Amino acid sequence: YYNLGTALEKAGEFKPAVKAYRQAIELEPEEAKYYNNMGGSLAGMNRTDVAERSYKWAVKLDPRFVDAYYNLGNLLLGLGRIEQAIERLEAALRIRPDHAKALSKLEEAKKALEKKVEAFKDEVDAAINKAQKMLDRGEL
Predict the structure, then answer these.
(1) Which one-letter DSSP state was computed for residue 47?
(2) How many Cβ atoms are within 10 Å of 18's Cβ, its own excluded?
(3) Which in 19, 29, 41, 117 has the greatest CB count within 10 A?
(4) Percent over 90 (pLDDT), the chain
(5) Where are the domains of the chain?
C-alpha cells in the first residue's frame, strides 16, 4: 500500500494516496515514513491541520527522521507560523547539517521573520508617533 500511495501522490492523486497510506499504516502502525508521506498528500489537499498532525506523528515515531522535520517546517512556514517552522528546520539540521533543502528553507524562514520584526517595529513607531501628536494637541 505504501508504494501505491507514493505512486498516486506523484501523480497528484492525493485523496487515493491518503487512503493507500492509511491502509499501509493499518498494517504497520509504527512506520514513520507512512505518516510522513501521508502528510505530503494531505498538504496537497490543503488539509494542513491533518498534515501537521501526520508529520508530528512521524517525528514522534522516529525522532531522527530528517525529512519529517523538514516537511513539518516547510508546512508551518507556508502557514505563516515562522518561529515554529524555524524550530523544526533547525531540528532537521541538528540531525543532518548538510540537508540542502532544510538549509535553504531555514534561510527563507529567517528572512520572513526579519520582515515580520521590521513590520512590527514600523507599527510600534507609527503608534508612538500618533500618541506623541495626540499628546502635543492635548488629546491625551
Answers:
(1) -
(2) 25
(3) 41
(4) 84
(5) 2-109
